[in-house]
Write a structure and sequence with these properties.
This protein is α/β, with parallel strands linked by helices. It has helices at 22-33, 50-55, 89-102, 122-131, 158-167, 172-175, 195-206, 223-228, 240-245, 257-267; strands at residues 4-7, 37-41, 64-67, 72-75, 81-84, 87-88, 105-110, 114-117, 135-137, 148-155, 176-182, 185-190, 213-217, 231-234, 248-249. The strands form 2 sheets. Strands 5-4-3-2-1-13-14-15 form an 8-stranded mixed sheet. Strands 6, 7, 8, 9, 10, 11 and 12 form a 7-stranded mixed sheet that branches. Strand 4 and strand 5 (81-84) form a beta hairpin. The longest helix has 14 residues, at 89-102. It is globular, with a radius of gyration of 18 Å. The relative contact order is 0.18.
């Protein structure tokens, strides 16, 4: 029996208009009635998840959330941190210099200042809009080496970002967890900061084995948790490489793919 369902948000739980269908909400409620934990696992900051946690009534001390692609795992009700793996201003300095060399825009999430960028652009604006947060323009050269940074993102037009990725030093992939969460977002996290490690930490905290976990996602930042889970599910709209590593491919986010999986593997 599955005891925990971990759900990516954009492209998975959410439809393209950023809403959750009634069918999906009903199946999630039925799963929870059977004692199954439902956990949102997103690249978003916690502020960008708050309204959905409220909508799904996942706000008690029995509820948990993975934010920043699993770099922060915490209890929703009492805010207790289960696991956290972050970066520092020193990492930001390194990646900022590389972003200038390869010709892409950059922004980061600071623990103390939120979404920061040296130069505002449409993809930082998109990040702010999606999550309902403010942007702070800041000279990255003035960020302290020890400042706590949750994650760093290179952001640009998909074709520009694609070209930049080809130029990135190969050792970055050993130093950081590097995931492409959207065609225009390339994310850099602590090497131990990804949805798979976050989900593993939460499962161990709750005494749940990986075989009792379902994880659903659509993009590169979902790979680690899909590989970790006993049942790793790719959405019908998922990146091709995510479908290849999944145990099961469901329907798209527009076709209630999440609800289909819950009905097939949890409620039936």
């Amino acid at each position: 029996m599955y005891k925990l369902i971990a759900l990516d948000m954009d492209g998975t739980l959410l439809k393209e208009d950023k809403t959750i269908s009634n069918r999906t909400k009903e199946t999630l409620d039925k799963a929870r009635e059977k004692g199954v934990k439902v956990v949102l696992a997103s690249g978003r900051p916690i502020e960008g998840l708050a309204k959905y946690l409220e909508e799904l009534d996942l706000v008690s001390e029995d509820d948990y959330v993975l934010s920043y692609n699993g770099a922060l795992v915490q209890n929703v009700g009492n805010k207790e941190i289960v696991a956290t793996n972050g970066l520092t201003g020193k990492d930001l300095e390194l990646l900022y210099n590389i972003s200038k060399e390869v010709g892409v825009n950059i922004h980061a999430f600071s623990k103390s200042e939120g979404l920061i960028t040296p130069k505002n652009n449409k993809y930082t604006e998109l990040e702010a809009t999606i999550n309902g947060i403010k942007i702070k323009e800041k000279d990255f050269d003035l960020v302290g080496a020890d400042e706590e940074i949750v994650k760093i993102m290179m952001i640009d037009e998909p074709e520009v970002l694609e070209g930049a990725i080809e130029k990135l030093p190969k050792d970055l992939y050993e130093k950081y967890t590097v995931v492409r969460s959207a065609p225009y977002f390339l994310e850099f996290l602590n090497v131990d900061g990804n949805k798979g490690e976050g989900l593993k930490a939460l499962s161990e905290h709750l005494g749940i084995s990986e075989k009792e976990v379902i994880a659903m996602g659509d993009a590169g930042n979902d790979r680690h948790m899909i590989e970790y889970a006993g049942l790793g599910v790719a959405m019908g709209n998922a990146f091709p490489e995510i479908k290849e590593i999944a145990n099961y491919v469901t329907m798209t986010n527009e076709e209630d793919g999440v609800a289909h999986v819950i009905e097939k593997f949890v409620l039936s």
